[in-house]
């Protein structure tokens, strides 16, 4: 049994990787990270993600519009996303969702500004959920400070599609709620941070086979690279840490996380 892993959430289109993307990808493969999913956050970024997936054999893409960029988004997202999502290597819609961490009210805006911003995030999130359902794809969810609203929006889609709550930092109870909706969670290098006891508690409570691993690179490099640019090769460090926390072998962790990823992203297995 091999102990290869998948980075299920990377942003290889970001300018951080313009200079040395080839080497970053080569280092990932050398570290046993056999497949990488690169995730779009705008239409332009989604186009770039698809182009990267076309160029490299073991790289796949997801296409979507991130909630932090909704003010630049067109009113009707689906048109071009639908075309991009039809690509053989596009394995999901996203990342999309709700992010209330930088509401206009925190920088001088009014309560009405906050309400309008939240409405716009919701509108674009719902457009992407409907498109995912139409295309038979699952969805990569970004949520920050917005758990209750995110659940309310995805509930009507239960059993029609699944979501992954990426970069999960919630409680064991929140993780259970997500599982009850048929969705799942994935963990980043945050699990290795000294101050992330709650994330480790949730990781312990999440059964093997019910979670995935990711970097969210260029952000969130795991210990011992914390604070530096993150890259997909560091899934190997994260996997070592998680195997110790879960008290399992690397081979068991590899089999369980790869199975979860192939179930969630069926086009990965094609
Ligand atoms: Zn991301």
* DSSP helix fraction: 40-55%
The strand line-up of the biggest sheet is 1-2-3-4-5-6-7-8
State mean pLDDT (0 to 100 scale). 95
The helix count comes to 9
What Rg do the Cα atoms give? 18 Å
Low-confidence stretches: none
Topology, number of strands: 8
Note the gap between the termini: 20 Å
Strand content: 15-25%
Largest sheet: 8 strands, parallel
Q: Helix/strand/pairing class, anyone?
A: alpha/beta
Element-level helix/strand string: EHEHEHEHEHEHEHEHH
Q: What small molecules accompany the polymer chains?
A: zinc ion
Globally, the shape reads globular
Describe the overall structure.
This protein has about 270 residues and is α/β, with parallel strands linked by helices. The protein is about 40% helix and about 15% strand. The chain has helices at about 20-30, 45-55, 80-85, 110-135, 145-155, 170-180, 195-205, 235-245, 250-265; strands at about 5-10, 35-40, 60-65, 90-100, 140-145, 165, 185, 210-215. It has an 8-stranded parallel β-sheet with strand order 1-2-3-4-5-6-7-8. Helix 6 (about 170-180) links the parallel strand 6 (about 165) and strand 7. Helix 8 crosses helix 9. It is globular and about 50 Å long. The mean pLDDT is about 95. Zinc ion binds near residues 9, 11, 39, 95 and 216.
């Amino acid at each position: 049994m091999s102990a290869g892993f998948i980075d299920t959430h990377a942003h290889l289109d970001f300018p951080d990787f313009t200079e040395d993307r080839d080497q970053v990808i080569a280092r990932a493969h050398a570290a046993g990270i056999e497949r990488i999913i690169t995730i779009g956050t705008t239409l332009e970024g989604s186009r770039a993600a698809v182009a990267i997936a076309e160029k490299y054999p073991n790289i796949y893409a997801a296409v979507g519009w991130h909630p932090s960029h909704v003010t630049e988004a067109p009113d009707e997202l689906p048109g071009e996303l639908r075309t991009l999502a039809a690509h053989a290597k596009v394995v999901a819609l996203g990342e999309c969702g709700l992010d209330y961490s930088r509401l206009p009210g925190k920088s001088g805006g009014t309560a009405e500004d906050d309400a309008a911003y939240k409405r716009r995030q919701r509108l674009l999130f719902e457009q992407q959920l409907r498109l995912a359902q139409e295309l038979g794809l699952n969805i990569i969810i970004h949520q920050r400070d917005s758990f209750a609203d995110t659940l309310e929006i995805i509930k009507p889609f239960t059993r029609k599609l699944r979501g992954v709550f990426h970069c999960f930092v919630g409680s064991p109870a929140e993780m259970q709620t997500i599982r009850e909706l048929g969705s799942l969670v994935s963990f980043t290098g945050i699990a290795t941070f000294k101050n992330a006891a709650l994330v480790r508690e949730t990781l312990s409570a999440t059964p093997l086979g019910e979670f995935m691993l990711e970097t969210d690179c260029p952000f969130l490099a795991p210990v011992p690279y914390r604070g530096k640019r993150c890259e997909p090769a560091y899934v190997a460090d994260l996997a070592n840490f998680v195997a110790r926390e879960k008290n399992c072998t690397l081979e068991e962790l590899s089999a369980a996380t790869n199975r979860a990823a192939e179930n969630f992203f069926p086009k990965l297995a094609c």
